[in-house]
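Below: protein 1.
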Amino acid sequence: YIALVYIVHLEACKMGLEGMKKTITKTLAQRMLSFVFTILFLIILAGATYYGLGWIKVVAGDATIYIVSVLLAVAYIFLLWVACKVPELEQTTEIKELPHLGRTAQAGYYFLLPVVVLMWCLVVERLSPALSAFWATVLMIVILLSQRPIKGLMRKVQGEDFSFKRGFADLIHGSVAGARNMIGIGVATAAAGIIVGTVTLTGIGLVMTEFVEFISGGNLMLILLFTAIISLILGMGLPTTANYIVVSTLMAPVIVNLAAQNGLIVPLIAAHLFVFYFGILADDTPPVGLAAFAAAGISGGDPIKTGIQGFIYDIRTAVLPFMFIFNTKILMIGIVNWFDFLVVVVAAILAMLAFAAGTQGYFLVKSRIWETAALILVALLLFRPGIVWDKFFVPLHEESPANIVSWVDDMDSGSSLRLTLKGEKLSGKPFTKTIMLTIGEETTGVEKLAGAGFEIRDEEGRIFIDNVMFASAAEKAGVDFDQEILNIQIPAHRPPKELVYIPAIGLFVFVWLVQNRRRKKQQPVAVTT
């Protein structure tokens, strides 16, 4: 989301667009303080909704609905009273200056109450999304009908702007506008049903899975690329939940299994997020872009053009799910302390900003070719520092499986055991794959292997799987009887790969300095007389 907002900012800069003139200019410290207070307010609102209303539900039981209704009514009247402390917002005159944020928010705090109801229904009452949205909409209707008359009483003024008739007109106007917007969405959803039915009922998804295994030829990047394209196709026209179920069921196992055959261990959560990202990307990808149709209904634009432009923006952030596979620290997997967490977060944000600026061809000013290449290189180094570090320092070294018992005996509880296995598929085709198992708290090496879920046998120096425990971690990892252990992969002692961040950030700062100097030269010089 940071990258998407930044892309919009870059587009505005490229077009020479400027924001409205601010009536009040704040210092950096004041802006940071306002940001912190906004975040704290949202946290307090969410906490009060979850814990406060949840506590009322525990204490009051079936009477909760009446107590919460009274609390909502009191909060509504209080927030209307707060809104009356500032002048009514003008809705007819043209806005030439940026309105004051505090006064604007104060005039409409009561519009947050439907959001509170929505959160309460979803989180506390555990109602369906449709029913939760219904009750939030009911409260919004009540607010539209009653806000103007109550404000009139509080301000002690009369007139058409503070009448029930005006509130009813607002409700009718909003209902008509909503119905018009839903026409295009309804038609798009109906048309998408044809494609969704074709994909799900004919079993074409399974055929595409076999296609990935065949056409990739074992190349990991091709596996990921074809999986992304197929997830995009499978996600067309599906709601979020169904989208996740379809793409995770059909495509996530493909990534995990084929990556293991290429010596890369992909956590299941990383594979799921990878396919889900591209499945959701189908929402604004023509011709079945439901989100694009919804956005076009609001903006009045062309749905296909909206979808194409949205896809162009989204594809610029498509590098992120690929990094889920190659750098799992982005998913908070393998974080050891708070400093490690801070480094990963800062590096990921800088990488997305650099990648967005590089693909946009604009940073502070229009980028030259070498600057674009430098920004993309910075993003690559920050996202995957191992791509350079692994060339100089080997991350793993292989040991003979003949000493597996002694190696495992020296491992601490919670350590990871990486093995390369060789076996045959049911079709008789040989394969090799890499697995990773977690060592338990057992005492001896043999007991630790049994705790991981398998036993071994030695045949003239060659180590084979002799037994696999049912429902064990080894069985879930695909370990099977009579597979041969080719080697044990032991992490090598080497300098931290995060040292690559230093030259990457240095290159980022250098590009910033070059473009900042060029921007100053391009700024018009004021002429004094």
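Below: protein 2.
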Amino acid sequence: MFADKNAFKEQYLERFKEITGESFEESTVEDKYKVLASLIMKKVAVYMADSHSRLNGKLNKKRVYYFSMEFLIGKLLDMYMINLGIHDIVQEGLSELGINIRDLENVEKDAGLGNGGLGRLAACFMDSLSYLNIPAIGMGLRYRYGLFEQKIIDGHQVELPDKWLINGNEWEIKKPSKSEIIKFYGNVKYEMIDGRLQFIHENYEAITAVPYDIPVLDYDSNDVNYLRLWSAETVDDFDLASFNRGNYLNAIKNKASAEA
């Protein structure tokens, strides 16, 4: 981690060049947030990998799988820094660089992963499991529009989609190698093959379920658990044959259907 504020500043400025390719003086507050989040996530990912190695080294390893439709985890930057014990060092280092840490924290969007009390309860359960050093994975869905943005227009409440992922999410790790093909619709036929009854799924529509992992760590805990959130993506997102025939809407139909 960072031994002191000077060590943090050195790593932060070096990371800034790696991430943005620009000079620090010309950066925006969004750039500064993105670099800080990237630097913190780099540290968290190391803790996460070490935690997995310790678990895999155990003979009688067991893990809790917590399934929930919602995980209201809130903003993670401040929580990660506190739980890693580096908040004060980072705050002092940023201050000497002319950055107010609160400005960076305000850039982060709330994770739109639900809208109810059960989602907050699920997030608290995951925090508790990490604090108790109980290996666990929270299984859920990676909603693109899990919450809504409220505006008052002409005296009426208007609900708009909350595009919380529009600038990406620095706290997630995409795991394409662990993707699964999910099949919808179609029909099932059965045949006797080599003396065994086999069921064959035909004429289905397939989507790819791609997992994204978000680390869950608690204060003064040795273990880092994670949320595994599944995102629906198309198997073939562009139908070139339809495009060449001039049927542009049909060319992107699979992508639109999967993301819906």
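Residues 5-259 form a domain with the Rossmann fold fold (CATH 3.40.50.2000).
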